[in-house]
Design brief:
- The complex is a heterodimer of chains A (91) and B (133).
- Chain A is α+β, with helices and mostly antiparallel strands.
- In chain A, 29% of the residues lie in helices and 38% in strands.
- Chain A contains 3 helices and 5 strands.
- Chain A has helices at residues 7-12, 17-25, 79-89, and strands at residues 2-5, 29-34, 43-49, 55-63, 68-76.
- With 133 residues, chain B is mostly helical.
- Helices cover 64% and strands 3% of the residues of chain B.
- Chain B contains 6 helices and 2 strands.
- In chain B, helix 2 packs across helix 3 (55-70).
- Classes of the chains: A alpha+beta (91), B mainly alpha (133).
- The A-B interface holds A 1, 3, 18, 20-22, 24-25, 27-34, 42, 44-46, 51-52, 60, 62, 64, 69, 84, 88-89 and B 1-8, 10-11, 14-15, 17-23, 25-26, 29, 32-35.
């Protein structure tokens, strides 16, 4: 299984691959449903902090036939995701 | 974190593997950066100058000292049993046989962190049972 990244999308939003990895590995994340891709692949949004405390949203697509998880989107978390995330992490 | 997306078991496994891989990459890079207020940076630099060591060496030694104290208290995420099974908090709560097996008279070669983790899983389970009656 490999993880691939849309580096152009990351660059458009001033996000680095390193920051995406930091969010991916974190246990303090919230997940949100997304509709399937045009190719019918499952997708989801993952929201979490980078090591420096930047809250990012990651769009993720699962491609089973290619045995690949693709991070197609990374940006600062938008307000709805940010609010939901903050509700979730409250003790 | 409770909020989970409604994805298939296959996608969930893929995500878990990707998280492990990302963790390894972050660890291998060996770099943690942080921002600090000007006053704190100034004080750190002055202490490092006074001790005649680079500020990164100073901060790293302090962090390492705290990690030595804190790390034994952090629960493990999974416990590998001698027969090859992997016990997680979810499986522990789901499969009482595994739970009893893990606790059989202290005969299993578990380290202090694993024993502490099992204790916390047991407490969580008892609390859950108390709430649900």
């Amino acid at each position: 299984m490999q993880t691939t990244y849309d580096l152009k999308n990351f660059a458009d939003h001033n996000v680095t691959q390193e920051e995406v990895d930091q969010v991916l590995r974190s246990d303090v994340t919230a997940e949100f449903d997304l509709p399937p891709s045009q190719r019918g692949n499952e997708r989801m949004m993952l929201v979490g902090f980078t090591n420096e405390g930047r809250l990012l949203e990651l769009g993720i697509e699962f491609s089973f036939d290619e045995d690949r998880m693709h991070v197609f989107h990374a940006d600062d978390a938008t307000k709805p995701y940010r609010n939901e995330f903050e509700r979730e992490i409250k003790p | 974190m409770k909020k989970k997306a409604n994805i298939s078991e296959k996608a969930r496994k893929m995500l878990e593997q990707a998280k492990k891989d990302a963790h390894e990459r972050v660890v291998k890079r060996g770099l943690i950066q942080f921002r600090a207020e000007e006053e704190l940076v100034d004080q750190l630099l002055q202490i490092a100058d006074h001790k005649k060591i680079p500020v990164s060496v100073l901060v790293r030694s302090w962090v390492a000292e705290h990690v030595r104290q804190e790390f034994p208290l952090v629960p493990v995420k999974e416990i590998r049993l001698p027969d090859g099974r992997v016990l997680t908090q979810d499986s522990y709560h789901r499969d009482l046989e595994d739970a009893r097996y893990a606790y059989q008279d202290g005969k299993l070669p578990l380290n202090a962190r694993e024993i502490r983790t099992l204790d916390s899983w047991l407490l969580d389970q008892q609390e859950l049972e108390r709430r649900t009656g």
